[in-house]
Specification:
Strand order of the largest sheet: 2-1-3-7-10-13
Helix content: 25-40%
Oligomer: single chain
Shape: elongated
Number of strands: 19
CATH topology of the largest domain: Rossmann fold
Number of domains: 2
CATH class of the largest domain: Alpha Beta
Distance between the termini: 67 Å
Number of helices: 12
Strand content: 15-25%
């Protein structure tokens, strides 16, 4: 079996709020190890995703790579996650890569700053190092003022320290997925940037059909194809960032397992998706099997099967939509009087107004038969603070904000019952926190407020 024995790679897909980064990093790792394509030895390809991609694990993997790779070897570093630049007090402008589990209140201990990243790269003896950074994803913290830092975090595709490394002329090549003022488009089976990278590694656009893919093959193909695939789209055109001054046009890998004729790729054709699609986990279902929900109105957002209305029990959702009970149904904007059930998501009619929903919640709290006056006033105050924060939410998270308000309304409708079902309250509370967590990737203040509201509800029962 022919192997590209000089190839070493470290692939990092952070996951968490960006599940697509795990798919992308895994796809690159598999392609590099595939004997029919890049043919890297499996033992020389390290993949870290989700919880495996915490700060210390990433730094340790760099140390191991520095020991394993020789001067003659080729090294590929791939990071897919968040990257930010911030102006820190007393320190100045600082770049951070955000591994799994980062904490904005403690970036020094949970993230990897640009200086630290550069030092880890310097420790690698190889003279041919390709660094691939897919960092400008949708969502994140750049729109929010992080009071704990006293600074704003702004998306950045490339650490400023890369300029220093390039000036040293040690064979570094940096490729970022998009410019700092752009977002990286998602896609299936991989993001637009990663798909282009894999095409290039598979020999698409190689200058010489000699069996090897070189850094200029990759950079030039990405520079050409990314703008073509994203032009005239609503989020603007995506352009990769290419930095390879003073670097030789070194060989990165085989493109056809040692053969000279490029092969077809072993995955489906690309489907381009908007940047915010990177934030949405795939294959999620809303499962209400064997659940009973009480109350006059329940609003649910879902792209899957739904079965719930009024005082009702759902039995089995695998076949479609099942309704039981005496309530009435509103679908696609038509309303029937009485108890109402609104189908959201793929069945959504007119968008619900966040302010109206939260005002309904505030009125419901005022008539709760549970808790004392001070508790009800405190919860109303928290709802008011949440409403103010949701006015700052980015446009691409408006739907999530509406769903959060809907889930709060459903929670308090249940709490307003004379004898609320504690199990149902608990489940509604968890759904409130889950949706707040999705919004928190762009507006971190939302999740703590939602958690306080759910905790207060439990204390009132």
């Amino acid at each position: 079996m022919t192997q590209f024995t000089n190839g070493h790679a470290l692939l990092i897909g952070v996951g968490a709020d960006l599940p697509i980064t795990v798919e992308d990093a895994t796809g690159v790792a598999d392609f590099l190890k595939n004997p029919a394509y890049c043919a890297y030895p499996s033992s020389q390809v390290v993949l870290l995703t989700s919880q495996q991609a915490r700060r210390q694990a990433v730094l340790s993997a760099f140390d191991e790579l520095a020991t394993a790779a020789s001067e003659e070897d080729t090294v590929v570093i791939y990071f897919s996650g968040h990257g930010y630049v911030t102006e820190l007090p007393l320190i100045g402008q600082t770049y951070f890569l955000m591994p799994y589990g980062y904490d904005v209140k403690n970036l020094r201990q949970t993230a990897i700053d640009g200086r630290e990243f550069a030092d880890k790269l310097r420790a690698i003896r190889a003279k041919k190092i390709l660094v691939l950074l897919d960092c400008c994803h949708a969502g994140g913290l750049d729109v929010a003022q992080t009071k704990s830092l006293g600074a704003t975090l702004v998306k950045s595709s490339m650490p400023p320290e890369s300029t220093e490394l390039l000036a040293e002329g040690n064979g570094y090549v940096f490729i970022g997925s998009s410019r700092a003022d752009e977002l990286s488009y998602a896609g299936r089976p991989y993001s637009v940037f990663t798909y282009a990278l894999l095409e290039a590694l598979g020999g698409k656009g190689v200058a010489n059909k000699d069996g090897y893919v070189r850094v200029t093959d990759i950079s030039q193909y990405c520079a050409e194809i990314l703008p073509q695939r994203t032009e005239k789209r609503s989020h603007g055109t995506q352009h990769p960032v290419l930095n390879f001054e003073n670097a030789d046009n070194f060989v990165v890998a085989y493109y056809a397992g040692g053969e000279t004729e490029p092969k077809g790729l072993p995955f489906p054709e690309l489907t381009v998706e908007p940047p915010e699609a990177a934030l949405q986990p795939t294959g999620m279902t809303f499962n209400q099997e064997n659940q009973t929900v009480h109350g006059n109105q329940t609003n649910i957002g879902s792209a899957g099967n739904i079965g719930q209305i009024g005082d009702s029990t759902t039995i089995n959702q695998s076949g479609g939509v099942n309704f039981h009970g005496s309530g009435q149904v509103s679908i696609g904007g038509s309303v029937v009087g009485g108890d109402q059930f609104n189908l959201s998501g793929d069945f959504r009619g007119a968008q619900l107004n966040i302010q109206t929903l939260l005002e309904n919640v505030t009125q419901t709290i005022g008539r709760l038969p549970h808790g004392d006056v001070d508790q009800r006033a405190q919860v109303q105050k928290l709802i008011g603070e949440l409403q103010s924060e949701l006015q700052k939410v980015p446009q691409h998270l408006t739907q999530e904000s509406e769903k959060l308000a809907e889930r709060l309304e459903a929670l308090f409708e249940e709490v307003a019952e004379d004898e609320p079902d504690a199990a149902v309250v608990g489940k509604f509370g968890e759904r409130v926190k889950q949706m707040a967590g999705k919004i928190a990737v762009a507006l971190p203040t939302v999740l703590p407020l939602a958690q306080k509201i759910v905790e207060m509800v439990k204390e009132m029962l």
